[in-house]
């Protein structure tokens, strides 16, 4: 599927299908991020026009929510849980390991574009702490060794 | 006849490899030419035993766990399809004490049924509450809920019946039922387990709420971190709609109820009910001033019932068995049951639905078996990131809203996070401030600025810079947050901070 410039046609399709829903902005932003991996800046004026909002309002919403991103993510996004239950099972050591293994900090993407690293505040897997999620797949009781195995599985799926 | 085998699709079980186990079982059965009926159930909530596989036998379901894919062939060799002996054999599932000693009302079906099978739901007493509700006048439905003594399970413990009554008595042609499925608190996962493991019970509860107050439209505001719940909710909604349990003519009654799931986007404050409504309307999740109450002016300015997942999922059994049946469980003004979520550094973490009144110590030791690391339990945080840290001297407190309040602690959504003696409580207090700064909606200054100041002050305390003065500053800051915040994010951040300071002063550099 070819996508001209920043995904203009995908954005238009999402807006078209959702703009008449009540409270359409969040569903539209989700739709765009699902399709493109992020919310391109070029989509802001298009959304604003379709919903009769100012660009500043749309931008304000995008930046308010941690989940929406304005830059393309890596091929895979690794979410590490930073919240208390995972802390009680030494998530901090796991996070230090993950950061050094990938050579990046939170909110960064590896040079080869393979992995982005994001913090998350609880995945609801507190009975399996420390927990992480990669591209929506969940992993519990993750040790540093297990983290390396998971990265390998994700890189080259069996 | 092919044997029925259950492998959970709950994301907790999946996080420990349940998908690979299910795959291995299907493969091994095919290889041996054995016909099996593989059901993906929710989790029983015994997470130290996950992935827990069950087989249906003439005597009942027999559990094996925790199962890894490499053990699957061995299980077949041991004739596990007929409940055969094996090191992982746990006996009859229902006889496992952790499960047997619970009072499962809200979670009655979780782990037992196929979550997205309407047939299964109905075969296990599903939709009996709705059938009763359809025979009652709206005020009679509200009365059952009021009589049950049910209080909101989302944190504030407000009586659900009173809230519904306000919406019932507010005239408007459009009203809404909103389910708060933002479950942002660390240490909590009971909303998730219901939505993944028995989504129909939530759908039924919301439908009854709609009948009770005269609302024909509902939204489930679900956190984006729960993709598995999203799938199961949508599958269940589609099935309910198909069978006429949702839509324009519910069970031929002529009454309508439409239901839709909307996703959040990673903002903790959107769990606060008015911020949630703003978010549903497509705006930033800024907390609204109250009044007006959402019950009077809620979503899109219309009268709105907003309730937590567990509150709503407790309604079907109340309408099925009657308000009094539910009220007979519990203690004091805490009626019914609480799905306790035991998490963190604990040997046997899981979901424990019990009548109110069980003590923390019973939960931590009788159920939990002590810490996972085997070291002494030093503190527990109950009620999420805005809940107090409680020391060992408070472990005999019964789980009861008022008993907790008397200790300046909160039961909240019923999550318990356990820490062993390696925890540094000054570090935890710093984290509480950092979390508040990170998640503040920014509407009021004490929370927005005060929490950032709080992090700086904690850093100084941790680095031993003018400790006495900075501890005084920390108390002053906490006072301001407590008294001048618009919502509980700013207003309750002092709970973890001050409880850590007061119960564990040594960690803040005080002389013993
Ligand atoms: C910062 C903050 C976060 C909250 N998060 C949640 C949440 O994730 N889920 C929830 O049900 N209630 C949450 N609440 C409580 C809601 O504001 C509200 O009390 C609840 O949705 C009412 O439903 P209930 O009466 O059924 O508990 C939160 C409150 C605050 C102040
Ligand atoms: S206390 Fe914090 S989160 Fe709550 S309304 Fe004020 S700024 Fe927003
Ligand atoms: S605290 Fe990490 S999954 Fe809940």
What's this, in brief?
The complex is a heterodimer of chains A (about 160) and B (about 500). Chain A has about 160 residues and is an alpha+beta fold.
Can you describe this structure?
The complex is a heterodimer of chains A (158) and B (512). Chain A has two domains: 8-64, no CATH class; 76-155, Glutaredoxin. Chain A is built from seven helices and five strands; from the N terminus they run ααααβααββββα. Chain A has helices at 8-18, 25-36, 43-51, 55-64, 84-88, 91-102, 144-155; strands at residues 76-81, 108-109, 115-120, 132-134, 137-139. In chain A, a hairpin with a 5-residue loop joins strand 2 (108-109) and strand 3. The longest helix of chain A is centred in the N-terminal third of the chain and has 12 residues, at 25-36. Chain A is elongated, with a radius of gyration of 18 Å. Chain A starts with 7 loop residues before the first helix and ends with a helix. At the A-B interface, helix 2, helix 4, helix 5 and strand 5 of A face helix 1, strand 12, strand 16 and helix 18 of B. The structure holds flavin mononucleotide (FMN), iron/sulfur cluster and FE2/S2 (inorganic) cluster. FE2/S2 (inorganic) cluster binds at residues 81, 83-86, 122-126, 129, 131 of chain A.
How many structural domains can be distinguished in the coordinates of chain B?
4
Helix count from the secondary structure assignment of chain A? 7
Helical residues, percent of chain A: 40-55%
List how many beta strands of chain A DSSP finds.
Answer: 5
Average pLDDT confidence of chain B is 97
Task: Note the beta-strand portion of chain A.
Answer: 5-15%
Report the largest inter-chain contact.
A-B, 42 and 59 residues
Describe the sheet with the most strands of chain A: 5 strands, mixed
Mean pLDDT figure of chain A: 96
How many helical elements of chain B?
22
């Amino acid at each position: 599927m070819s996508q001209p410039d920043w995904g203009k046609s995908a954005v238009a399709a999402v807006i078209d299908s959702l703009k008449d829903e009540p409270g359409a902005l969040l569903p539209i932003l989700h739709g765009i991020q699902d399709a493109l991996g992020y919310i391109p800046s070029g989509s802001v004026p298009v959304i604003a026009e379709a919903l009769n909002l100012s660009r500043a309002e749309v931008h304000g919403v995008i930046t308010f929510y941690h989940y929406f991103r304005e830059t393309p993510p890596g091929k895979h996004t690794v979410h590490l849980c930073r919240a208390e239950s995972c802390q009680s099972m030494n998530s901090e050591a796991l996070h230090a390991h993950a950061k050094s293994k990938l050579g990046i900090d939170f909110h960064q993407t590896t040079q080869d574009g393979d992995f982005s690293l994001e913090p998350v505040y609880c995945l609801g897997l507190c009975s399996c702490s420390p927990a992480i999620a990669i591209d929506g797949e969940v992993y519990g009781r993750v040790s540093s060794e297990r983290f390396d195995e998971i990265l390998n599985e994700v890189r080259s799926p069996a | 006849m092919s044997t029925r085998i259950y492998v959970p699709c709950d994301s907790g079980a999946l996080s420990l490899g349940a998908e690979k186990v299910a795959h291995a079982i299907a493969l091994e059965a095919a290889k041996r030419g054995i016909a099996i009926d593989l059901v993906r159930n929710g989790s029983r909530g015994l997470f130290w035993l996950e992935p827990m596989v069950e087989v249906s036998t003439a005597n009942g379901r027999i559990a094996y766990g925790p199962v890894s894919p490499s053990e699957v062939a061995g299980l077949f060799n041991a004739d596990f399809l007929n409940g055969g002996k094996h090191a992982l054999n746990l006996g009859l599932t229902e006889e496992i004490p952790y499960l047997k000693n619970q009072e499962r009302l809200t979670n009655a079906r979780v782990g037992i049924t196929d979550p997205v099978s309407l047939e299964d739901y109905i075969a296990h007493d599903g939709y009996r509450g709705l059938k009763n509700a359809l025979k009652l006048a709206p005020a009679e439905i509200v009365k059952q809920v009021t009589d049950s003594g049910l209080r909101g399970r989302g944190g504030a413990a407000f009586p659900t019946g009173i809230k519904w009554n306000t919406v019932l008595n507010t005239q408007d042609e459009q009203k809404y039922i909103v389910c708060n499925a933002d479950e942002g608190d660390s240490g909590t996962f009971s909303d998730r387990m219901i939505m993944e493991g028995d989504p129909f019970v939530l759908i039924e509860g919301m439908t009854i709420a709609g009948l009770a107050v005269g609302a024909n439209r509902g939204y489930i505001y679900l956190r984006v971190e729960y993709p598995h719940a999203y799938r199961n909710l949508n599958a269940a909604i589609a099935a309910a709609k198909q069978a006429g349990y949702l839509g324009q003519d519910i069970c031929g009654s002529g009454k309508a109820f439409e239901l839709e799931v909307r996703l959040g986007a990673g903002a903790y404050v959107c769990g606060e009910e008015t911020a949630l409504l703003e978010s549903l309307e497509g705006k930033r999740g800024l907390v609204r001033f109250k009044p007006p109450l959402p019950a009077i002016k809620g979503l899109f300015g219309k009268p709105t019932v907003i309730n937590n997942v567990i509150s709503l999922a407790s309604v079907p059994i109340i309408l099925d068995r009657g308000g009094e049946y539910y009220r007979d469980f519990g203690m004091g003004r805490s009626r019914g049951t609480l799905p306790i979520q035991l998490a963190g550094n604990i040997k046997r973490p899981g979901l424990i639905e019990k009548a109110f009144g069980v003590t923390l110590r019973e939960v931590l030791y009788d159920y939990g078996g002590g810490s996972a690391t085997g070291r002494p339990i030093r503190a527990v945080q109950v009620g999420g990131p805005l809940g107090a840290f409680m020391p060992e001297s408070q472990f005999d407190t019964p789980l009861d809203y008022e008993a907790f309040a008397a200790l300046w602690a909160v039961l909240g959504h019923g999550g318990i996070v356990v820490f062993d003696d390696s925890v540094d409580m000054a570090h935890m207090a710093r984290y509480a401030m950092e979390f508040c700064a990170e998640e503040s909606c920014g509407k009021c200054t004490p929370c927005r600025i005060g929490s950032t100041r709080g992090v700086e002050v904690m850093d100084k305390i941790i680095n031993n810079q003018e400790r006495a003065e900075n501890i005084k500053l920390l108390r002053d800051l906490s006072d301001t947050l407590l008294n001048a915040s618009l919502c509980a994010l700013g207003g309750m951040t002092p709970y973890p901070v001050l409880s850590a300071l007061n119960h564990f002063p040594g960690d803040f550099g005080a002389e013993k």
